[in-house]
Amino acid sequence: MGKAGQSRLEQGAYRDDPDRDDAASTSSAVPLGDIDFPEADPPAYEEIASTAGQPRPEETYMYSSLIPPSIPASHRSRDEITTTTYWPYYSDNAEVLKDMLEAQAECPPTLTARITGTHSETIKRKEKDEKTTVTDFDVRLDMTHLVLPGPNTPRFLVMPSFHTVDGAQKAYRGNQRKTIEQCDGALDKEAYIQSYVSSHHPVRSLTFERHILYFDSAALEKLLVSLVRSTNYRGHLNITFPITNRRVRVYSPCWQNRYREKWWVRWFFYLTFLWIFSWPYLSFVTRRWEVFVADFPYSCSPECGNRRFVTKSEEEFFQEWKASIRRAIMGKMQGWIDEEYKLVTEEQQGGMNGMQRMPSTGNANADAALGFLQTAVSVGRGVSRAGGWGADS
Fold this sequence. Notes:
The protein is α+β, with helices and mostly antiparallel strands. The protein has helices spanning 88-92, 94-104, 189-197, 217-229, 255-260, 263-271, 275-285, 314-330, 339-349, 364-386; strands spanning 13-15, 74-76, 82-85, 110-125, 128-142, 162-164, 173-175, 204-213, 236-240, 243-244, 247-251, 287-297, 334-336. It contains ten helices and 13 strands. Strands 2, 3, 6, 7, 8, 11 and 12 form a seven-stranded mixed β-sheet that branches. Strands 1, 4, 5, 9, 10 and 13 form a six-stranded mixed β-sheet that branches. Helix 4 (217-229) packs parallel to helix 8 (314-330) and helix 8 packs across helix 9. Mean pLDDT is 80; it is low at 1-12, 17-35, 37-63 and 352-356.
């Protein structure tokens, strides 16, 4: 959002099956550099209950290591897009709300490349033919770091990103419907925050959004499609760039807001058709503030002529990861690839035609036999996929 005419990321998607879900399941890791290790001796050993196998709360949600600060009394939606909180201090104290929004604005949304291949198989069950969908591969790759400025980032791309929408743009500004602001430019953030906190309406919400600007998903999508098809894959290909962790919503701590987010209440209203009455009621009584935005550019705008990037172009990113992506697809991988996976791929490429060298036995005849066996296996794999793989059957 931001100034009028400013573009935002559209999630481009190459797909043969448009009904598939784009949301990506993710987890996270905390960098060691963010941990303050004490200089004193560690405390005496004390036996405690084991927590092995229990992930930290944030690990359930995103794979990216760029984790925003935690928000008290909050939960994340199933699609991992929205974090919702009912913490009363955010609705009563302007300084607390401002600090939270500024801290969240420093962390970008999670950008992911997801490449999925499927095919259908017909099987016979009780004298009936049934079609089932088989996932050939589901490869995911974190791209969030590409919108974080580094030492080589052009100076004009390192800019404050937290702002409010332009006054001429329609938005919820504490009303039941979208309006424009009768002023030049954008209203001050503090004024909107104070307006929300001081409102006498009990049912209200405030929403903060993160956007990625000027990412050419279509260009990267085209490169990935070409890479997958070069493996003679004949199945249904679905390439998406889901953006998760992009919205924070603050609800005032009233009973209407608490129940509107409970899944069992929603299903009860859906099944009994009471939503016909509840939806107009909530729309009428809820006052909304949806004016806060944090922009993270991938590059300069198309109008700048010679396009410059925060980190690297889509083409450079593709060239860096194409060998790892190809290996993951050929291996029918379902999961995330990371720097460690890329390092192993590069080590394998340093061997004979991308294969790891066979260890030497010290016997020339034995080494020759093992080399012949390795070559035969490689040729066999190539021949088996020469006519294509992953087609419907």
